[in-house]
Recover the amino acids of this structure.
């Protein structure tokens, strides 16, 4: 059976996906054109679709981010 689970990430997870950047850097990147918009904004903060963030990272990957990305 195929799983159709939606993978969501919050700011903490996105910071880790970006190689451990701080929340301030995430805010700078998220303000740039082309960064995926959040799916929604909850009381706890923004929530993104994980595949959209992963695709953005793949298209904008820098050697430092790839080196620091958790395995």
């Amino acid at each position: 059976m195929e799983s159709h689970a939606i993978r969501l990430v919050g700011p903490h997870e996105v910071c880790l996906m970006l190689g451990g950047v701080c929340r301030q850097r995430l805010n700078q990147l998220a303000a740039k054109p082309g960064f995926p918009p959040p799916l929604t904004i909850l009381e706890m903060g923004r929530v993104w679709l994980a595949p959209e963030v992963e695709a953005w990272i793949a298209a904008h990957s820098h050697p430092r981010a790839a080196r620091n990305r958790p395995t």
About this structure: The first strand starts at residue 8 and ends at 9. Residues 8-68 form one domain. Residues 8 and 49 are 5 Å apart (CA to CA). Strands lie at 8-9, 40-42, 45-49.
